[in-house]
Amino acid sequence: MHAAKQIETIIENIERVVVGKRQEISLSLVAILAGGHVLLEDVPGVGKTVMVKAIAKSFGAHFKRIQFTPDLLPSDVTGVSIYNQKSQEFEFRRGPIMANIVLADEINRTSPKTQSSLLEALEEGHVTIDGDTHAIEQPFFVMATQNPIEYAGTFPLPEAQLDRFLLKIKLGYPNPDEELDILNRLENHHPLDQITPVLDTADLLELRAQVGSVYIDEAMKSYLVQIVQETRNDELISLGVSPRGSIALLKAAKALALVNGRDYVLPDDIKYLAIPVLSHRLTLSTQARMSGVSAHEVIEKLINRIRVPVPKRRLTSS
């Protein structure tokens, strides 16, 4: 499949900079191809910024970084209308959110008011300033980061905001061999400086269109719905996944199938994505939190008690 070759080229290009994180790179591409966004939760210094910059450079996309701070205003993110005395009209000055690929760094360090300014952009792909709607040029992808360790001076993202992110992933520390490789690559120059575009944004939009044609049969859809339904009935979960989560899992599964070189969805696609797609969309019960149970563990257990279906039809790859 031509799409699979293009995607592999992108992954290999990013791996020139981001060492040992092929799974996380692939998941990020799944989100981009599905038209979603990523919440990346991890400690500082593990390569979050480098990865999103490498993604942007690989597509030759317009990239912007927003450093979230407590004093950041919504207009600093979305843009502002300024009165032009010569033309006697208001002119829209685009904010950094108006880019193809945006790094929203330390999103939990800004106020809830500023956080909420992202909701419209993440969900609708546009911003509204002074009653006027301004579309964000496609493709549009936001990778937001947050530090899970430092809680002082942070504002946890509310459920409505978390629900707008297709995936939640972590990079984690490199192993000794990977860290040595990083040192060798960075000894004389930064590999990011050597990254060149291997596709363009038009290619990305074409890949997105192909995701829509990936086949998923009714058995797979029923399996997906069963998983989501179980999150609403489990005693360890006080707030289950909404229908938006079902839609997100469907889109992500189709995108993953394309990344893996298939034009049909398998149960393994759904199982593989269940944790990154659903874990941030549910709320654990007090009992679960006091017992130290994680959302990952709860999702794994409920998946294991659901019978895996056999696809009735498989389309051959082209």
From TrEMBL:
InterPro entries the UniProt entry points to: ATPase_AAA-3 (IPR011703), CbbQ/NirQ/NorQ/GpvN (IPR050764), ChlI/MoxR_AAA_lid (IPR041628), P-loop_NTPase (IPR027417)
Organism expressing this protein natively: Alkalicoccobacillus gibsonii
PANTHER family from the UniProt entry: METHANOL DEHYDROGENASE REGULATOR (PTHR42759:SF5), MOXR FAMILY PROTEIN (PTHR42759)
Signal peptide range in chain numbering: none
ATPase AAA-3 domain ranges (all copies): 37-167
A Pfam family that the UniProt record links to this protein: AAA_3
Stretches assigned to the ChlI/MoxR AAA lid domain: 229-301
Protein name per the record: MoxR family ATPase
